[in-house]
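re: that chain from earlier
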Amino acid sequence: MMKHTFFILAAMLCLFSCQESIDGDQGDTIKLSTDKLFSSAEGGEFEVTTQGKCWKIYHTISVDSESYGMGWDSLSNNYYWIYNDIAFPIEMDDRYHYIVKMEGPWFTVQRITDQKIIFSTLPNETGKIRTLMLFLVDMGFGTSITLTQSAD
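^ sequence. v structure.
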């Protein structure tokens, strides 16, 4: 009984300590210049810088309150963000295997350097506010950047 209890406790400890977290349970290793971007309905380009260099774009994003997960298309040999039947492409860095560019229906996000991300938005003709939430992780630390585009 004692071995069984010890095994369960050890497994739980390993499970919780080995998970990559996006809820910030260690110090800020990314240090964003801003975590909120605002775009006019006309669209534009916005830059976010980081002090950290080893961060990655997390495999889930939120677009207009819908979560997209990363998927792989073995026929085309490409990665995509996927939600229901909607998919848009992702460019991966072949050497380090992290996301360097993604193109959505109204936005583009591109990791230009280890410390610079560029967000671009197309004109918003929907009459509705649009949002993009991008999650970044580095070791056990996680943070997000929210881009909001006005409707008018």
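Confidence is low (pLDDT under 50) at residues 1-24.
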